[in-house]
Each structure stands twice: as C-alpha cells, then as structure tokens.
Amino acid sequence: MTKAAYHYTFEHEHLLGIEGLHPLDITHILDLANEYAEATRAGQRADPVLSGKTVVNLFFENSTRTMSSFEIAARRLGADVISMPVAQSSVKKGETLIDTAMTLNAMKPDVLVVRHSASGGAKLLSRKVDCAVINAGDGTHEHPTQGLLDTLTIRRNKGRVEGLKVVICGDIAHSRVARSTTQALHLLGAEVHLCAPRTLLPSGTETWGAASATSDFDTALQGADVVMMLRLQLERMDGAYLPSRREYFRYFGLTQERLSLAREDAIVMHPGPMNRGIEIESAIADGERSVITEQVEMGVAVREAVLHLLAGGRP
Amino acid sequence: MSLSIYNARLLDPATGLDETGAILIEDGKISAITLGATSAHDGAADSLDAHGLCLAPGLIDLRVKTGEPGDEQKETLATASRAAVAGGVTSLVVMPDTKPVIDDVALVRFISDRAKTSAKARIYPAGALTTGLKGEAMAEIGLMADAGAVLFTNGDEPLQNASILKRAMTYAASRGAIIMSRPDDRALKGSGVMNGGAFAARKGLAGIPREAEWIGAARDLMLAETTGCTLILDQVSTPRTLELVAKSRSEGANVFTTIAAHSLFFNELDIGDYLTYCKVNPPFRDEDTRLAMIRALKAGEIDAVVSAHDPQPPEEKRLPFGEASFGAAGLETTLAALLSLVHDGPLSLLEALAPITCRPADMIGLPQGRLAEDAPADLILFDPGKPWLCEREHLRSRSTNSPFDGRRLQGRVMQTFISGECVFTR
Asked: How large is the ipTM?
C-alpha cells in the first residue's frame, strides 16, 4: 500500500504514546520503518533527511540500548546527535526535568528524545519546549517506539497483525512496554492476552485493548502465534510482589515444554535485557523461534521512521 | 485385611447420623456402614465389639505447634502425635513457626518425611506466609503448596504491613492457596498479657483490648473481600469479630473462623492467682463472652475448633505471669472440652463434633473427617460420659502446660484408628 493510496499525512507533533494514534498512523510508520530496514539490510545509505537538524537524547534513566538505538537512527538520517545521560540527582525530579527542558529548549534542538522515571514525564516536557518530543519511556506509562518495533517485527514474521493471538507474559503492572505494545497490536486487530502473577496484573487491562488477563500461563499459551516475555525486575522480590525467582520461573518462565503449547510456528519475543533462567530459558532465547535480535534491528528502523516523520519533512 | 467394628453408636456430623450400627474397614478405608447391626460384618478378618461406645471420625486439628525442628525439648512431631492420638486427634496441621521457619519447599518436605517416619497421626505442614515470618518478603507459596503445605500463615506473628498482606493474599488467591491469619493488631495488643478489663486492672496485669482483635480482623476481612483470597481467621474470641465476618461473607468474602477449645471452657477468672498455664493469646475473655461464643458455635457461626496446642516447658511458664510465655498444651483435652459443652447442655454430640471433624476437613479439602464409604478409616471410639481427672504428669505431650491440670473432665477416647489401624488403646 502506498501513501498515495489513502491520501494520508502524519499530523502528529510529538510521539508521546501509542494512545492517540490512529491505526493508519501506525501502519504508516511501520511501512516507512520497513523501507528503512530493507535499505539497511541491502547496505544502502538512507537519504540525509535530518541533515542540519539536532536531536538531543535526554535520558534520566540509564538505558544504553534504547539510547544507542535512537542515536544510530538519528545519525543514519544525517542528524547531529547529543546524548545526555542525566543521572538521577537528589534534586526533586519534576523540577529537574522542567529546568533541564527549558535550558535545552533555549538551544533550539529539533527533536528531544526523553526517558524519565515518572509517568507523564514526556508529556510534561512536551508542554515546555518548542520542538518535537519522542517518549523513549516514561515511568510505567508508555514506550511507544517499543510498541511499534514489536508490531513491525510481528508483521514481518507473520505477514500480518490482524487476527493473531499474542501472549504477553511478565510484570504487566510495571511495564510500559506492555501498555504500548498491547495498544499498538490491538489497534491493528491482534488479539492480545496478558499473563502475570496476580500481584503484577493490574485491573482494567481491557481498556488497553487486551482480550484477556490471566495468571494461568499454560492456558494462555494455547494456540498462540506470538509469545512475548517481559523482563522481571528482580527488585519485585522485595515488597512481596513475588515469592522467589525459582517460583516465578516455575509458573511463568518460558520453557521448551511450555512453548510447545503455543502454535508450532509461534515466534518468541523479548524487549530485553533478558534474565535468562528467570523469565526465559536460554535455549529458547537463542533458538530458531526467537526473533529477539530482529526486534533490536527493527528498533533502529522504527526510530528512523519516527524521527523522519517528526523532523524530516512529511513524506 | 479387614476389620468390622460393631455394636457402636455411629456418629457422623457430616450427615447427622447418630445410630447404632457397624462399620467395615478394608484397605484402610471405610467400605461399608451398616445401620442397626449389632454383630460383625460377615467375612471380616477381624472384629471388634464396641459395647455401645461412640464411633466417630478422628479429630482434625487445624492449629498445632510442636518444637520440631529447633525446639525439640518442647515437643517433637512424635510426641505431639502420641498426645494427639490419645486425645482422638488423627490429623493435625502443624504451624510453621519453628527454627528454622517452614518457609521453603525442602522444609515442608522435611516435616512430611519426619512425620511419616516418626509420627502415628497424619501431619500436614502449614507454610510460612513470609520468608522467616519476618513479614517482609512473600514465601514460596506456590511451590510449597505443590509440595504439600495445606495453608499459609504468619503464625503467632501476624503481618503488620497491610500492603504486604494484600499482595500475599492476591498471589495466594491466584494459586488457590488458603491463608490463615491471627486477627491481632500488635500496636493495640501492646504489652498486654490477659483479657483487658476490670479483672486485669485488679490483678495489676496489662490487658489485651478486644479492639486488637476487631481491628486485625477488619483489616484481614476487607483484604480477603477485595483479593478473593480464602481466609481462615485464626482463633477468634469475641462475638463482635463474628459480626465482622458475617458482614464480609455477605460481601462475598470466602472466610472461615476457628476458635481455641480452651476458650470455650475457661474465662479470665480462671487465671486466679496468676496461673501461667492460663496465659494464652487470644486471652480467656469474660464469662459473657465465653457464653456468647458457645452460642455462636452452636449456631454454626464458628467453623472449626482447634486445640491451639502450644507446648511450653516449665522454664517458659514458671515465671511471673507477665514474663511467662503464651500458650497451652491442648491436644489431649480438646475432645473433653467440647464434651463438657454437651454435658452442660448447650451442644448436642454432633454439634460438638462437627467443628473438629468434617468442617475443618472441608476447609482444607481433606477426605477424612466423616463416616462415609471410601473415606479414610480415621476413627475414634470414645466414651462420652467417662469421668477422669486431668493431671499434667499423665499427659503425653513433652510439655504439659495444660490449663486443664487438676480439672475433673468427662468423656474419654478409648481407641484411635488411622487408616483402619489401631494406633492407641487406653
């Protein structure tokens, strides 16, 4: 499908979340990202659509992976990139965020990529600056480029998204990935089932578009086309969310045996970084059904597409 | 092998049966119940004339402490089991507050294995709700349940952090595990050692206010309502607590209650001149409260009676009242305490037996506790009217801290069977 086929333009000023996007927006981003992915695979250099533009990576939470991914994406499009890993200081977080934003805004960047530990952090920042803001993860709220790259990876492997049964298992309650990915997949017509220990399964997931929410992983896995495991933050053992790593692995770890409950051609995903032996067996993570490294590859492509759409003119 | 016990007064609280008859035991299970029979079943390898004694299901005790592992000088699984079968208790749930705490699969298996090799009674481990009972991190509820833990509790140290309790209940609910909790707000209990009120004041002892139980219960019940967790309120002691339970049930909560047998028998005045054997928690309440709890038991508002067996050696009890440990040995006197309520009038024999046989069995899903075909042949033959003097030197527990010491009681177990095998004869 070409852009001309549906006379579409991408109208958004920022990318703060999947919420608020239209299915056509998502399809449009994925199409462009797919072009970038194919071009990179073919060894072609992308057009420098961001030439002369400045992209600032503002990461209040440490994340080498996501920050590098944005940095590479921006550089491939010819942008000047500054990455600022801002360590969490003892200063009140809200104050720091706004002060930093005002300072940066005065330097006239074109895109701010922000990660912050507070839900709503990216939104707050977007109100204070004149440039485009990309949310690279705000607290336990959203991580839209992750939702998009997951959707793209699925679409590439399955040829479609609509009608697929996707199971997302892990710490749903504290996962911005689960929120973004569930919404993105739901908007494109997939059936998303969320699975977690009850202590990590919030209520109201149907409003994200989830078809079901359960603590019974085995049942959820039956007939699944896609199995996505989330990282378990090991500090969840404190504060009595969970008993222990081994009990978690026993009931929610993805093993070969469990995976056999899903469809034979089911793919396995993980947003990384993985806890091998806690949420996923190494043999599966490295196995032929794993598309985990492709997710990383699509991460760059999706971020190229998003940067292009927000700052590189409207193709 | 088969055994026929005939000429017995068959008592089955599960069905309300109270008739003369015979039962046939084959392969450890009840294979036939013949009403009206005054002779043995044909073809039974062995037979036993009950001479009109009562034949009832063995008692199921949901709350027993032993000292194994770690405090074997207080009680072992073997000595507790010896006392249990003499008291007619054939199944008992042992609490996790041992040294080390039963908070791990290996320790659950240890209890089960030790019980198999050393104990006559059936022993079911309860798992710790939090690691080390510290109230901070959830223990491995799922894995321990899979290994045979029948319920989860923080024992005598109820969780003080409601947020952790809520998460534990949420998690337990999703794994179908049962949580037992002592309703006891520790800040309110403070340094109290007996029922709060005029008598405590006169004795110069710090009182435990009833509000400590109410507020603890209200919290536990509301969390059970919202999380859907099956909750056993451990040893309730006031009618007001039962009102809270009724309210929660009407809101859909799945809640059970237990009461300690000794609190149906004693009131606070039995403490007399600072008798430390009467120091228990929840404390013996005033007489009106005791009578109200008996009425509640009769009305079915209390689900189960427990012995709350808590062996304490002399060094823990031969102390000034305030310094002595809480706890009473109870395995050998539970049946007599209940039968006293039959002899005194308020309860029928079946009403006295139900809360210590079929009802606790149903609470934790055991097949025994009833006279039914195919049920395990865990049985007691008892003489409901037999008088006896409870003397602590004759008790079989390793620790004999019984408040019944010196009391004249009526009703005794004459023979106890587990899986059809006689494990105790008086």
From this structure: 0.78
Place of tokens 């008592």: B11
Q: What is the full per-residue pLDDT of chain B (426 aa) written as tens digits?
A: 899 999 999 999 999 999 999 999 999 999 999 999 889 999 899 999 999 999 999 999 999 999 999 999 999 999 999 999 999 999 999 999 999 999 999 999 999 999 999 999 999 999 999 999 999 999 999 999 999 999 999 999 999 999 999 999 999 999 999 999 999 999 999 999 999 999 998 899 999 999 999 999 999 999 999 999 999 999 999 999 999 999 999 999 999 999 999 999 999 999 999 999 999 999 999 999 999 999 999 999 999 999 999 999 999 999 999 999 999 999 999 999 999 999 998 999 999 999 999 999 999 999 999 999 999 999 999 999 999 999 999 999 999 999 999 999 999 999 999 999 999 999
Of B188, B186, B256, which is closest to residue B221 (Cα–Cα)?
B256
By three-state DSSP, how is residue A97 classified?
helix
Task: Compute how many other C-beta atoms are within 10 angstroms of the C-beta atom of residue B41.
Answer: 20
> Under 8 Å CB-to-CB from A312, ≥6 apart: which residues?
A49, A50, A53, A77
Number of H helices, E strands in chain A: 11, 9
pTM recorded for the entire structure: 0.88
Asked if A137 and A125 touch (Cβ cutoff 8 Å), the reply is no
Nearest-CA distance from B130 to chain A in Å? 8
Can you tell me which residue has the tokens 């990139």?
A81
What are the backbone angles phi and psi of residue A130, rounded to the nearest 5°? -100, -10
Query: Which chain B residue is nearest to residue A195, measuring alpha carbons?
Result: B174
- Number of neighbouring beta carbons within 10 Å of residue A218: 12
B chain contacts of residue A251, beta-carbon cutoff 8 Å = 142, 175
How far is A78 from A73, CA to CA, in rounded Å?
A: 9
Contacts of A244 in chain B (CB under 8 A): 140, 143
**Strand ranges for chain A from DSSP E:** 54-59, 80-85, 111-116, 132-138, 165-169, 191-195, 210-214, 226-229, 267-269
Phi–psi pair at B386, nearest 5 degrees: -65, 120
Q: Within 10 Å of residue A164's Cβ, how many Cβ atoms? A: 23
Give the torsion sign (CA, A157, A160, A164, A169). Answer: positive
Two structure tokens written together for A108: 């006239």
Q: Find, in chain B, the residue whose alpha carbon is nearest to that of A238.
A: B137
In chain B, which residue's Cα lies nearest the Cα of A245?
B140
